[in-house]
Amino acid sequence: MPECRIFVGKNVITQEMYYKNQVILTYTVNYPYFTSHYNLLILEQINAYYRTRAMMYINKEIKNLYMQATVDYEYAMANQFPVRQYEIYEDFTVTYNRDCILSFYFDRYVYTGGAHGSTVRTSDSWNIACSRPLSITDLFSAGTDIREYYIREILEQIKNEPQNGIMMYFDDYENLVRENLNLSNFYLTNDGVVIYFQQYEIAPYASGIPEFLIPFSEDGAVLPDFC
């Protein structure tokens, strides 16, 4: 197979939304587009998917948040409270782009008042050569208990972290890791697979989004060959 170099671009949609001549919501949605000299059809389909994903989010979810913001505005004005402007910001980070394999994640931050907003992470990986999404099961030999493998690796990393480290976890983190591990919440890097948890799942808000890099290895995850 010839070298498959994929170029990554960014589309940006941003807007200030007004109500009674005041901005009550701002949003910025960034989404990727990909180009290459090879595999043009699958890349066009992927680009269409993320374009549609962005527009559906704007036309449905952000529209609903705007309606909620108008209600909060009226309540604040009626009770002489400060008006809190809603904010939505979504961006993506490409973490792996080699040998016809793409991996990246989206962070979507939403603020609707209160002390702070919340961030939700999603991720996707694609085997461009095979024209299909890349599942975590594609990285392991058949019959491997992938869930137990990652639970063991994550708990070992947490136990070996310095006691005065930056990350903090809930006291019952062992049970929470087992309950909240989602094998769809992963992305690839040059060094291995990163498994992540959402805010509050295993750690307080101040810890952000907990991430665990599990290196590629013979008894763990291995990148697939071309189709």
Question: In a nutshell, what does this entry contain?
Answer:
The chain is α+β, with helices and mostly antiparallel strands and 227 residues long. It is 27% helix and 33% strand. It contains three helices and nine strands, in the order ββαββββααβββ.
Features:
DUF3298 domain-containing protein, 2 domains, Heat Shock Protein 90, PdaC, single chain, Actin, Chain A, domain 4, PdaC/RsiV-like_sf, flat, alpha+beta
Architecture (CATH level 2) name of the largest domain: 2-Layer Sandwich
Number of helices: 3
Number of strands: 9
Shape assignment: flat
Stretches with pLDDT under 50, minimum 5 residues: none
Strand content: 25-35%
- CATH homologous superfamily classification of the largest domain: Fervidobacterium nodosum Rt17-B1 like
The ordered string of helix (H) and strand (E) elements is EEHEEEEHHEEE
The radius of gyration over CA amounts to: 21 Å
Explain the overall architecture.
By secondary structure, the protein is an alpha+beta fold. It has 2 domains: 127 residues, Heat Shock Protein 90 (2-Layer Sandwich); 80 residues, Heat-shock cognate protein, ATPase (Actin, Chain A, domain 4). 27% of the residues lie in helices and 33% in strands. The protein has a 6-stranded mixed β-sheet with strand order 1-2-3-4-5-6, with helices on one face. It has a 3-stranded antiparallel β-sheet with strand order 7-8-9, with helices on one face. Strand 5 and strand 6 form a beta hairpin.
